[in-house]
Amino acid sequence: MASRAATKQSPLFVCIIGTRPEVIKMAPIIRRLREVRWADVRVVAIGQHLELLDQAIADFELQIDHRIAVERQRNSIIEIAAKIMERFDVLADRLSPTCVIAQGDTTTVMASAMVAFHRRLEFIHVEAGLRTGVLRAPFPEEFNRRVVALAATLHCAPTAQAAANLRAEGVREQDCIVTGNTVIDALLYMAGRTLPLPADFPDVPKPILLTAHRRENAGAPLERMLGALRAVVERYPDVGLYFPVHPNPDTQRLAERVMSGHERIRLVPAQNYPTLVAALKASWLVVTDSGGLQEEAPALGKPVLVLRDVTERPEAVDCGAARLVGTLPDRLHHSIAELHDNSQAYQAMAQPRFPYGDGHAADRIVAAIAERIHIRDPSSTISGQVLGAGPVDPTTVSSDENSID
Ligand SMILES: CC(=O)N[C@@H]1[C@@H](OP(=O)(O)OP(=O)(O)OC[C@H]2O[C@@H](n3ccc(=O)[nH]c3=O)[C@H](O)[C@@H]2O)O[C@H](CO)[C@@H](O)[C@@H]1O
């Protein structure tokens, strides 16, 4: 589905999505681009398990226009990257976009950036400049981030710190803007809707929302952390756990083995975004290794314990909304016990804070793109014109859903 108001002369924007967090963080930009009159927008889903993205994108009342499904025959990220590059190159040739927009640090984003670079396309990188400073942690995301930064023509940094990271790598000031993170736009959009609490959410005064999916925590570290969390629930009758478990079969088996059989521990499948936001709103505490949840929880005043040794999101820790507890079980147990037993310590963390933006990141990003490609009337949602593109043709561009497999 092309944007309703776009015309044949409108510049074409290819918006890439590959995983659930990319959908959540790209959706506010896609929605904003669809509102303006000067943009023709195509949503391109690239990667494995694309069927999982349909619900996620529908939660934002959007649709996928083109799909590049990439199957993995060997256990190799390089195989995936090579297939994405080859197939996205074919689609880019056919669509001839003005801009490619992608978010984050996945292999999909890295491979798309390579294609955009070789085709000399504008490449807009959303959530630019996140760095741990350790090339192999997280692996391979930190490497992907740096490759993407080489290809990007406009870097949309979520925070001043992320922009400073880019400037230190030599990115020119005029190519980098601080926008806030679009996840806060998505969160506030969703949190403003009436969201029913999941039926199996634990009915206790202090429910903990747990997510854990990082590759580096898989296996023994995760087992130790789950053991510590079970011990916390057994120690405190007013504490429960809501755990949407990652679909990875090893993680599922581990979670079943360590966590099953306790009335206040609820193991559930990965939840759609509206349900997850409802659970987040109802939680007392968040324990996670997720990047997105580190950003979302502070905005709703939910303290976060981060199951990582390093984070590319230091802002939440710096403002007192999050603590980096690593993966040692004693530290995790002790941190939760402290927040449980010391209400002052809890309240100090539980103030709503917005280190990742005010919910208007997508507006800033679309305005910066308009400036970059010389849109004459960027705020127009009725009759904008593209400079140098001639008179606006009232013919609405339409595109059927395509697959290039
Ligand atoms: C290394 C790293 O940090 N990489 C990050 C990673 O993203 P992540 O760590 O944030 O990934 P997840 O935790 O999977 O997703 C989180 C989102 O999903 C929602 N959620 C969660 C559970 C559920 O059951 N239902 C849901 O709806 C939740 O509220 C949140 O919004 O990849 C992104 C690019 O893909 C990167 O940009 C980003 O740096």
TrEMBL record:
It comes from the Bacteria. Residues 32-369 form the UDP-N-acetylglucosamine 2-epimerase domain. Gene3D superfamilies: Glycogen Phosphorylase B. The keyword Isomerase applies. GO terms for molecular function: UDP-N-acetylglucosamine 2-epimerase activity. Keywords: Isomerase. PANTHER family: UDP-N-ACETYLGLUCOSAMINE 2-EPIMERASE (PTHR43174:SF2). This is UDP-N-acetylglucosamine 2-epimerase (non-hydrolyzing). It comes from Pseudolabrys taiwanensis.
